[in-house]
Amino acid sequence: MQNFVYHNPTRLVFGKGEIAKLGALIEKDRKIMLIFGGGSVKQNGVYEQVKAALKDRDAIEFWGVEPNPKIETLRKAIALAKEQKIDLFLAVGGGSVLDGTKLIAAGAVYEGDAWEIVLKGYADRSADYASVMTLSATGSEMNAGAVISRGETDEKFAFFSVKYPVFSILDPQTTYSIPSDQLANGLSDIFVHVLEQYMTSMGQSRLMDRWAEGIMQTIAEIAPKVLDNANDYKTRSDYMLSATLALNGMIAMGVTQDWTTHMIGHELTALTDIAHGATLAVIYPATLSVLRESKKDKILQYADRVWRINGESQNEIICKAIAATESFFRSLGLKTRLFEYGVGEGIIDKIVNRFEERKTILGENGDIDAAVVKKILLACK
Ligand code: NZQ
Ligand code: ZN
User: Fold this and answer.
1) Nearest-angstrom CA–CA distance, 257 and 245
2) Are 87 and 150 contained in the same domain?
3) Atom of ligand 1 at shortest range from CA of 97
4) If I label 36, which of 46, 177, 270, 300 is the partner at 20 to 30 A Cα–Cα?
């Protein structure tokens, strides 16, 4: 294991009816901005619960943070926050609303244009922020990362805030209203978050491996129920907590990571608007296929422990493991090939050119350059 420091200060408040605790979680003298997406919270009753819990509190509302939150929208919230001297930002929605809120909270105490924070990749100052999560996928509720898009240039980049959410409230009942395509995207995102921290060199930590495998097995087991059984509280609880534990640093202690699929996926979303989790379902099987030699030992462990795959030869087991991964995404109802989205060579070339121009190097060992990215994208066709 490598040396590491683990410090995750987010207070996780989990369970039925816990939104009612909002008033107790936020100090009385706070000036609050409530931040929402496009209106799903008005249909599923979450908005009323938040308003009831915060009645008589000093709070303004900002609406319209879109999926893949855009800097053009967030700038408006930042200007309003500065004008109103907001000191606590509460995201009510999915990963996009919370990611947007992370930039709003950082932008509110930043002199320049907030896009500079995104380009720098980190915010060294931020106001406090917290969340009521209504879509489980990103793990944003218990990490300091955010991914922000810029509409004018079709760009999408991640940055890390100096602050984590002060608290995040997760009531699995809020997920009952998520449409099935968003559930599928979420399950794909959770599964690939685990894989990008797991599918690296062997023998770094038995414990991290087992935790990661446990989350993947849980997601594989519950996925059909999550998709079919809208009001099953127990299943939704496991779904919700899996998303949080997949990307709150718990399975990353002391081990290497490889975020190749996510980095390619962000470009695909930026250029085509395909949803985040959906891009991963296309790219991940191809990444495994292209990197099957360097990841051989870990793929064999994954095949055995997650999918219980046997075979006559290592080659056969690896092929079956890649096929099982792709079948899992298809079982969620997701497409796994670029042509199914009508994406052809033009977009592939654009993505490869971007990586070339930026001299991006990805992978656990820093050996995935634009040429390897091209191989991966061609393998997704
Ligand atoms: O905007 P509203 O009306 O709220 O509707 C949303 C949105 O249209 C809807 N929705 C959310 N909760 C709902 C619901 N509809 C019905 N019932 C509910 N309970 O779902 C749609 C998609 O929401 P969005 O927030 O965009 O989805 P998700 O949570 O998957 O977030 C995706 C974004 O997170 C980034 C992605 O790149 C993408 O921009 N990621 C953030 C990460 C992080 N912060 O750590 C890591 C991830 O890898 C990911 O990159
Ligand atoms: Zn993701």
Assistant:
1) 16
2) yes
3) 25
4) 270
Write the single-letter amino acid at 170. L
User: Which ligand is nearest the CA of 195, by number?
Assistant: 2
Type of residue found at 257: Q
For atom 45 of ligand 1, which residue has the closest CA? 140
Closest atom of ligand 1 relative to the 176 alpha carbon: 19
Distance between CA 133 and CA 172 in Å, rounded? 9
Q: Is the CB of 185 under 6 A from ligand 1?
A: yes
Find out whether the beta carbon of 242 lies less than 6 Å from any atom of ligand 1: no
Counting from 1 in the atom list of ligand 1, the atom nearest the Cα of 46 is 19
Dihedral over alpha carbons 129, 131, 136, 140 (to 10 degrees): 10
Whether ligand 1 lies within 6 angstroms of the CB of 139 is answered as yes
Which DSSP letter does residue 370 get?
H
Residues 331-350, mean pLDDT to the nearest whole number: 97
User: Is 172 close to ligand 1, i.e. is its CB under 6 Å away?
Assistant: no
Q: Which residues contact 87 (CB under 8 A, 6 or more apart)?
A: 30, 31, 127, 128
Q: Where are the beta strands (DSSP E) in 87-184?
A: 88-93, 122-123, 128-133, 145-150, 155-161, 167-170
* Number of domains, the chain: 2
* Residues 122 and 258 reside in one and the same domain: no
Read off the pLDDT band of 229 (50, 70, 90): confident
Q: Ligand 1: does its nearest atom lie under 6 Å from the Cβ of 163?
A: no
User: What is the layout of strands, in order, in the sheet containing 32-36?
Assistant: 11-14, 167-170, 128-133, 88-93, 32-36, 59-62
Residue 37 to residue 41: CA distance in whole angstroms = 8
Domain of residue 352, residue span: 179-379
Under 8 Å between Cβ of 289 and 378: no
Q: What is the pLDDT of residues 105-149, one digit of tens each?
A: 999 999 999 999 999 999 999 999 999 999 999 999 999 999 999
Query: Does the pTM of the predicted model rise above 0.85?
Result: yes
**Whose alpha carbon is nearest atom 49 of ligand 1?**
138
**Is the distance from the beta carbon of residue 134 to the nearest atom of ligand 1 less than 6 Å?**
yes
CATH of the domain at 87: 3.40.50.1970
CA of 276 to the centre of ligand 2 (A): 7
Q: Is residue 5 part of a domain?
A: no
Ligand 1 pocket, residue 188 CB under 6 Å:
no
